[in-house]
């Protein structure tokens, strides 16, 4: 199949391997990896492989321009890593906290709304990518954010040394 393009076959082979791995990684994740905090009271939820796949796609389409790899390009001091999310006010290290943020973002200390600066459901007229997101979409995006530290470890939110 690749004989006509023998000089490209190693590159094509690598790309096909990456594509195959990315398409199937959600299926290979175990229950511990798929279990994420639901709220601040300690309840958890288990994401389905479909939610993981969809969350990744939605995150990449909606959020990755500013949060590629879990960093925050506009403020490198605040990332999407577990510690950064847990220290926010209110804590954003759970599904409900992240959904609340995506609907109505506030400053890191929770003191003021930043809906005019950060894409959100509240400011969908300013940020068109947010217009058609449903609560299920927000749930899967939050799930993606929360499982990434388990999948890519310290790379998630690790900054420019990794990306």
UniProtKB/TrEMBL annotation:
SUPFAM superfamilies: Cytochrome c. One of its GO terms (molecular function) is heme binding. It holds the Pfam family Cytochrom_C550. It is found in: Membrane; Plastid, Chloroplast thylakoid membrane. One of its GO terms (cellular component) is photosystem II. Binds 1 heme c group covalently per subunit. Keywords: Chloroplast, Electron transport, Heme, Iron, Membrane, Metal-binding, Photosynthesis, Photosystem II, Plastid, Signal, Thylakoid, Transport. Its cofactor is heme c. Heme c binds at residues 63, 66-67, 118. Residues 1-26 form the signal peptide. PSII is composed of 1 copy each of membrane proteins PsbA, PsbB, PsbC, PsbD, PsbE, PsbF, PsbH, PsbI, PsbJ, PsbK, PsbL, PsbM, PsbT, PsbY, PsbZ, Psb30/Ycf12, at least 3 peripheral proteins of the oxygen-evolving complex and a large number of cofactors. It forms dimeric complexes. The extrinsic subunits in red algae are PsbO (OEC33), PsbQ', cytochrome c-550 and PsbU. Belongs to the cytochrome c family. PsbV subfamily. One of the extrinsic, lumenal subunits of photosystem II (PSII). PSII is a light-driven water plastoquinone oxidoreductase, using light energy to abstract electrons from H(2)O, generating a proton gradient subsequently used for ATP formation. The extrinsic proteins stabilize the structure of photosystem II oxygen-evolving complex (OEC), the ion environment of oxygen evolution and protect the OEC against heat-induced inactivation. Low-potential cytochrome c that plays a role in the OEC of PSII. This is Photosystem II extrinsic protein V. It comes from Liagora brachyclada.
